[in-house]
Amino acid sequence: MHTVVGRGLSRYTCEPRLLRDGKGAGLTWVDGPETSLDPTVLRPTSDPFATDGGVKMLTGPLGTAVVKTSAVAPEHRVVRAPAMVFDDQADFLAAFGRGELDGRDLVAVIRYQGPAANGMPELHKLTPALGVLQDRGQRVAIVTDGRMSGASGKVPAAIHVTPEAAVGGPLARVRDGDIVTVDASTGRLEVAADLSAREATGRPALDNEWVGTGRELFAVFRAGIGPADEGASVFGRWAMTEESAVVDA
Nearest Cα to 49, choosing from 32, 69, 35, 77? Predict the structure, then answer.
């Protein structure tokens, strides 16, 4: 295989050096270092930054979630605080702008953001606002059935909560003031309330409320989507349905 630096991939383990002597200058290749020159940036597997890879699974009465702990300081990895419930990240940001989140510890529950609700959009706008509150000394965390990829940052964020609110998951029955615990040390996602007797509240946006955005075109996929912890795949859901049909037959 030919690449821009020559044949094969071995050149990518070397460093180009420009040599100068009395006859002029020339390019040569030397072997790259075999050990990290800065272990604060790159480490070998024998000495990892975190033995769990900087990711923790959470389980509990609110479902299953994942939290990225790699950028969260140890003192912020356990948050127990009253819930503030929102059905859209825009509502959360509006409350932040009005100062309604100031001066209190809180767990922001952002629900109806899963694959069956609205296609699981990126919720990257949440972190800067909660980061400001955390920097002020407030204890804050996020619990959502939505997606944040690598944007969860320094705030503990229990994301991809399954089952999601749109299919009747526990988040649909959480209310403002419920005490929620996000514990990224022990891997627990708790709520100090009996949700079994409660009716679900809130809802995802309806297709007619999306007219003109393009999302209304994908209603068939949202209706048949699988859960986030199984890849949020329509193919997985269809395959399971077909398999069940064969078994039932």
Answer: 69
The answer to whether residue 218 sits within a structural domain is no
Question: Which residue from 64, 55, 113, 66 is spatially nearest to 88, judged by alpha carbons?
Answer: 113
Q: What is the mean pLDDT of the chain?
A: 86
CA nearest neighbour of 116 among 213, 2, 233:
233
The residues near 166 (Cβ < 8 Å, ≥ 6 apart) are 112, 114, 116, 117, 145, 172, 204
- Structural domain that includes position 23: 2-31
Peptide bond into 227 cis (omega under 30): no
Which range has the top average pLDDT, 36-50, 163-177, 212-226?
Answer: 163-177
Q: What percent of the chain is predicted at pLDDT more than 70?
A: 90
Coil/strand/helix, residue 228: helix
User: E-strand spans in 133-223?
Assistant: 140-144, 157-162, 179-183, 188-191
The answer on pLDDT for 14 being more than 70 is yes
The closest alpha carbon to 178, from 83, 60, 80, 63, belongs to 83
Residue 248 belongs to a domain: no
96 and 148 part of one domain:
yes
Greater pLDDT, 67 or 222? 67
pLDDT above 90 covers a percentage of the chain that reads: 52
Residue 55: other Cβ atoms inside 10 A:
12
Residue-wise pLDDT for 206-219, tens only, equals 777 776 677 777 77
- Classify 29 as helix, strand or coil: strand
